[in-house]
Amino acid sequence: MTGQGYVALTPDSLPGRLGALSVLRDRVGPAEGWQVREVGDGNLNLVFIITGSAGQAVVKQALPYVRLVGESWPLPLKRSFFEYNALIRQEARDPGSVPAVWHFDEAQAIVVMEFLTPHVILRQALIEGRQVEGLGRRLGEFCARTLFRGSDLAMPAAERKADLALFAGNVELCDITENLVFSDPYFAAPMNRHTPGLDGIVARLRSDLSLKVAAQHLKMAFTARAETMLHGDLHTGSIMVTDTETRVIDPEFATYGPMGFDVGMLIANFLMAHFSQPGHETAPGARAGQQEWLLSVVETIWRSFVAEFSHLWRTERRGILYQASLYEDQGDGLAAEQALADLVGRIWVDTLGFCGVEMHRRILGLAHNADFERIADEGLRAACEARALAMGRQLMLGAGAIRGIGAVTAMARRMNKEDHL
Ligand code: SR1
Ligand code: MG
After folding, report:
1. Element housing 165 (H / E)
2. Most buried residue, 51, 73, 211, 288, by CB count within 10 Å?
3. What is the pLDDT of residue 344?
């Protein structure tokens, strides 16, 4: 499982092992003065912050197993290779959207990156009731730029095919998504867990045959439709923010897949943040403003995504799909606009479906969201989660009939007042 010579870092061993790297000496200062803390709180990796006389850096190292579960679940180190390759592509496609990568060591599965400060993980900020200026616009643009520019709409065909082959190697992380997102929530899989008060609604969802079919249609879209390079795990724990700045991190699940996957996962996590707010308020209704803001972010993500995607369609469509030679160059500019509207419509339907499965798997599967998990009162948590489960079902089954992002936020607003237990 581990590559030759791989050894996991510790805070004590890190200065000796990385102290000779010139990029760290230059940016952080001499290793003799380093202070190292391990701060990883995700499901998979080690994350260290180095503080030195000249600055700070982040060192992320893959472990040969799933940290959340332990050594009984081996996971290849090569996910670090995919993360590195995704980060440098995202930086090229949307400059300034991700942390700068300073060094990559494939054998040790180490990525050395810029330390983002005073950024915090967005999920934590949302639980605390904080708001971030420009968040929805920035995330919508990130999705549009990375998804458009990583596809056959924009890339030279040979380059795109080489990338498709490269990311096709990310088999084990795709396998996690394929099982944990699309299958496990819909039966009593061994690693699943849910809040006890949800037993009734969980039984109803798992006996809903249409839902099981919809989930597998979505899984087929994920496995078969290699439209673009996805981030692959775009949730609010994969985003770091200040009050005014947004950066996307952790693309180790990167793979080629359908455009709606990233957008759907992202929106799902804002909707879950919305439904979880009553579990974090200090007085009834105290988080009503935060809930409305979260829905406004959902709307802005989608609208900014469409606006930027449309802009790129009109200005950077140089790939092998929907060529200008077929449309604009023939005087058929209107056909290009019609093709754009059709494509955005397809992405929209995919987005809603992926949004629904993500809402289900974070409540029914192995990997839950702190938004709900931090609600200590189990009855209150179940009530909040049940609303998200019900909405996830409506999105998956009704995707084709939901007209516009305003209908989605209206649905969330309505369901937030309902009892779905
Ligand atoms: C076993 S890994 C569980 C989850 O953590 C990651 O962040 C992904 O979301 C994955 O599905
Ligand atoms: Mg992650």
Report:
1. helix 157-167
2. 211
3. 98
Are 109 and 222 part of one and the same domain?
no
How many whole angstroms from 135 Cα to the centroid of ligand 1? 23
The string of pLDDT tens digits covering residues 121-139 is 999 999 999 999 999 999 9
Query: Of the bound ligands, which one is closest to the alpha carbon of residue 66?
Result: 1
The ligand 1 atom at the shortest distance from the C-alpha of residue 68 is: 1
Pocket (CB within 6 angstroms of ligand 1): 43-44, 66, 68, 176-177, 180, 233, 366-367
Q: Give me Rg for the CA atoms of the chain.
A: 22
For residue 374, the CA-to-ligand 2 centroid distance in Å is 19
Indicate if 108 and 159 belong to the same structural domain: no
The Å distance, Cα 44 to ligand 1 centre, comes to: 7
Same domain, 180 and 280: yes
Q: Name the residue at shortest CA distance from atom 3 of ligand 1.
A: 367
Task: Kindly report, residue by residue over 39-75, the tens digit of the pLDDT.
Answer: 998 889 999 999 999 999 999 999 999 999 999 999 9
Tell me, yes or no, whether 33 and 172 share the same domain.
no
Is residue 242 packed enough to be buried (19+ CB in 10 Å), middle (13-18) or exposed (0-12)?
A: middle
Domain of residue 243 covers 120-416
Instruction: Return the residue whose CA atom lies nearest to atom 8 of ligand 1.
Output: 233
Q: Is the domain of 124 the same as that of 80? A: no
Q: Residue 351 above 60 pLDDT?
A: yes
Provide the pLDDT confidence category of residue 162 given band limits of 50, 70 and 90.
Answer: very high
Task: Give the 3-state secondary structure of residue 62.
Answer: strand
In a domain, 8, yes or no: no
Question: What is the distance in A from the centroid of ligand 1 to the CA of 47?
Answer: 16
Does residue 396 lie in a domain region? yes
Indicate whether 168 and 19 sit together in one domain: no
State pTM to two decimals.
Answer: 0.97
pLDDT in tens, 193-203: 999 999 999 99
Q: Which atom of ligand 1 is nearest to the CA of 42?
A: 7
How many angstroms separate the CA atoms of 25 and 324, rounded?
A: 49
Looking at the 3D structure of the chain, how many domains does it have? 2
Please check whether residues 233 and 310 belong to one and the same domain.
yes
Model pLDDT, residue 42? 83
Q: What distance separates the 2 farthest-apart alpha carbons in the chain?
A: 67
Q: Give distance in angstroms: CA of 173 to centre of ligand 1.
A: 8
In this prediction, residue 3 carries a pLDDT of: 59
CA distances from 108 to 35, 49, 78, 206 (A): 21, 17, 10, 42
Q: Are residues 301 and 408 in the same domain?
A: yes
